[in-house]
Specification:
Elements lengths: L3 H5 L10 E8 L6 E8 L12 E4 L12 E11 L8 E8 L11 H8 L2 H6 L2 E12 L4 E2 L26 H14 L3 E6 L5 E10 L2 H20 L1 E4 L14 E6 L1 H4 L3 H14 L1 H7 L22 E3 L6 E3 L1 H6 L4 E3 L8 H14 L3
Parallel strand pairs: 1-5, 12-13
Antiparallel strand pairs: 1-2, 3-4, 4-5, 6-7, 6-9, 6-10, 6-11, 8-9, 11-14, 13-14
Helix pairs in contact: 2-10, 4-5, 7-10
């Protein structure tokens, strides 16, 4: 009798041309991920060649029971690191049967901004630093922490090694390799300041693909933590007190910023961001006020300020950018639970389309 692990790892490509496509979408909370699988007659590499599908929106908080059908539109394809072979993960967004984006579909509005000629011409690049916390499943307390108690103060844990300092590295490394396998442009990982907290970076990615890749990376992480029996938390302040929160710092540049003289363009863009600070904060994640306190490497939520190499600022400009007179900047305000479609498109809209 085959072991369950043998069947999970079964390579079906030897016996059939059919492939499994896992359709993935964002659920009713705006942060939860849902998915279901279907069989396709053969390999597909272009999302436009994939069939639309539907699901019961009343079970995800996205439609009433008397009219519950929601339609999935395939938007991006990644290789499936779990089933492997020609099997795929499909990032979708959701519409009514009449073709109207449902309220939790933030991708559709972002796609309109990223398809604007003025935005296309500037080839916006994003690098998103996704911080997250691993929790012990039955007690919802950070991995490696004594149950109901606390580890030693912050200091020894950031980018650290050792059984008493780094908790969950097997999950983190599995996720890193799985993302590379999937074709996600994951650019690095590191242990964070609070023990049990980690970070991965996606990018540089152009336009809407930054959101597609981050959601795919989040889905893969959810699946890996499911296998490991650990809970993934994107709460921006999972532990109150003298502990760092979790953000999703968003690095950004345009073609003009990357060219000679780009530093002046960067300063004008930052000025615009300051003028719309409240609008951005409102769109940068739930519970962010618990994180943006002016402590633990954050600026106060009600204050907008920028600086070179200043991790206590709303916007940080790197030393290399200042020195070379061109490059990128980092928006440190987004929370770990932010929607990357919302944040990336809003940054593009404010800096490229909005007229003060």
């Amino acid at each position: 009798m085959s072991l369950l692990s043998d069947l999970i790892n079964l390579d079906i490509s030897d016996s059939t041309e059919k492939v499994i496509a896992e359709y993935i979408w964002v659920g009713g909370s705006g942060t939860d991920l849902r998915s279901k699988a279907r069989t396709l007659p053969g390999p597909v590499s272009d999302p436009s060649k994939l069939p639309k599908w539907n699901y019961d929106g009343s079970s995800t908080g996205q439609a009433p029971g008397e009219d519950s059908e929601v339609i999935l539109y395939p938007q991006a394809i990644f290789k499936d690191p779990f089933r492997r072979g020609n099997n795929i993960l499909v990032i979708c967004d959701a519409y009514t049967p009449a073709g109207v984006p449902i309220p939790t579909n933030k991708r559709a509005a972002a796609a309109k901004i990223f398809s604007h000629p003025d935005v296309v011409a500037e080839v916006p690049w994003y690098g998103i630093e996704q911080e997250y916390t691993l929790l012990q499943k039955d007690v919802n307390w950070p991995l490696g922490w004594p149950v109901g108690g606390y580890p030693g103060p912050q200091g020894p844990y950031y980018c650290a090694a050792g059984a008493d300092k780094a908790f969950g590295r097997d999950i983190v490394d599995s996720h890193y390799k799985a993302c590379l396998y999937a074709g996600i442009n994951i650019s690095g990982i590191n242990g964070e300041v609070m023990p049990g907290q980690w970070e991965f970076q996606v990018g540089p990615s152009v336009g809407i693909s930054a959101g597609d890749e981050l959601w795919a990376a989040r889905y893969i992480l959810e699946r890996i933590t499911e296998i490991a029996g650990v809970v993934l938390s994107l709460d921006p302040k999972p532990i109150q007190g003298d502990w760092n929160g979790a953000g999703a710092h968003t690095n950004y540049s345009t073609k003009s910023m990357r060219a000679d003289g780009g530093y002046e363009i960067i300063k004008k863009a930052i000025e615009k961001l300051g003028l719309r600070h409240k609008e951005h904060i409102a769109a940068y994640g739930e519970g962010n006020e618990r994180r943006l306190t002016g402590k633990h490497e954050t600026a106060d939520i009600n204050t907008f300020k920028w600086g070179v190499a200043n991790r206590g600022a709303s916007i940080r400009v790197g030393r290399d950018t200042e020195k070379e007179g061109k490059g990128y900047f980092e928006d440190r305000r987004p929370a770990s639970n932010m929607d990357p479609y919302v944040v990336t498109s809003l940054v593009a809209e404010t800096t490229l389309l909005w007229k003060p």
